[in-house]
Structure formats: C-alpha cells, structure tokens
Amino acid sequence: MKPYVLIAEDESAVSELLFYNLKKEDYEVAIAADGEEALLMIEERAPDLLLLDWMLPKISGIEVCRRVRSGGTNPNLPIIMLTARGEESDRIRGLDTGADDYVTKPFSTTELMARVRAVLRRIRPGLKDDRIVVGDIEIDRVAHKVIRNTVEIHLGPTEFRLLDYFMQHPGRVFSREQLLDTVWGSDVYVEARTVDVHVGRLRKALRQEGGDDPIRTVRSAGYALRAD
C-alpha cells in the first residue's frame, strides 16, 4: 500500500512542486490550501506524513501542529514543518510544538525527499525493504543498488532513476518526452537526444555480464523494459 502524504501549503507553486516530486516517488498525495482544510482532511483520513507550512491562512501551521499533537484522532502523525522562518528560536519552537523535522525555504527538493523517506521508514519499517524485481533484475531503492543475476550493477544517478521508472512500469512504452518529464523533471531543459544517450549507458551497464538486452526500442514510439 502506498504511503499517503498530505501537503498543507498555500503557495501553489510550492505545493505543485511537492506534489509532482512525491508522485514521482510513488506516494499517494493530497493538498490542503489552509490550516482549517488540513485539519478536516486529517480528521477524515489520517495521512502517513504531513508536510506542513508554518504560515498557513485561517489556522497557522504551528497551530495545526499543536492541535494534532494535543489529541484528536492521530496525535502521533509524523510532521515535517516547511517555513521561511530560519531563526534558531523558530526552529526550536516548531520542534517543541511537535514537528518531527524542520525544513527552511527555499529548500532542496532532493534533500526534502530524502527526509520524507527517512521519516516514513521510521514509522513504517516495511519501507526499509523497498525492492522491485522484474525478470532477473532487482532494484533496491533504499540501498541504491541494482543486481542482475546475483551480480551488482553500478549505475550513475540518472541511469538509476531511468531503470527505477522502467521497473515500475514493465512492458509499457515511454516516449523520449515522457521520460524527460518524469526522470529529469518538467522544469529542466535537456534535448530529447539526451534520453538516447542515457538509455545506451543503462543498456551497456545491464549487459556487462553478457546478458540479453532488457530494454526494447519501439520505432517512432520510445523505450520499454521487457516484462519478462
């Protein structure tokens, strides 16, 4: 079952960025635009993790955190506080109110996703064994390892993300544009030919022990990981 993450953030650009990156990590995601809506959504269905902006309309994030911790249906809900307030006293106040972690804006999306994974692994131990197996290929997201036929394959970060995405959708054909959008991100400009280069590197790495090519090229359509 996918972890469910609730984003409580009133800046649409930030909430959309978080939504996109969390969906890419294969989480179930919902957004609340103010503190009142966040509390209602938590009451209706408790998330596995709350990403909570400090400066929310109607009810502030710090007050949402206080109310969650003071009782309600899910007082142990993991909370990562997001805020532009970087002073030490503010961080201490946020943590003392009950936040599990505190991230100052502007933040690194990569670092924030790592913190999300770390918090979720603490509260859902099953996530420590985050593996996907397709055919003779196994990818371990937590250890950041790839094994084929018992041999560890060393991949660069882009090739790892490509393989991860392919293995989430074995047999499905993706165009270069779709891969650029999901693996590189819609806010990064790179040429479509870049996909060919990285797919070539991925193929070479996966075949270094002489195995069959697990990636299929579909003329005028794109690439797919063989489902078998």
Automatic annotation (TrEMBL):
Keyword DNA-binding in record: yes
Q: Which GO terms describe its biological process?
A: phosphate ion transport; regulation of DNA-templated transcription
- Which cellular component, as a GO term, is one annotated location? protein-DNA complex
Compartments in which it is found? Cytoplasm
Keywords for this entry?
Activator, Cytoplasm, DNA-binding, Phosphate transport, Phosphoprotein, Transcription, Transcription regulation, Transport, Two-component regulatory system
Q: Which InterPro entries match?
A: CheY-like_superfamily (IPR011006), OmpR/PhoB-type_DNA-bd (IPR001867), Sig_transdc_resp-reg_C-effctor (IPR016032), Sig_transdc_resp-reg_PhoB (IPR011879), Sig_transdc_resp-reg_receiver (IPR001789), WalR-like (IPR039420), WH-like_DNA-bd_sf (IPR036388)
The molecular function terms of the Gene Ontology recorded here are: phosphorelay response regulator activity; transcription cis-regulatory region binding
A Pfam family of this chain = Response_reg
Is Transmembrane helix among this UniProt entry's keywords?
A: no
> What biological function has been recorded for the protein in this entry?
This protein is a positive regulator for the phosphate regulon. Transcription of this operon is positively regulated by PhoB and PhoR when phosphate is limited.
Q: What is the protein's given name?
A: Phosphate regulon transcriptional regulatory protein PhoB
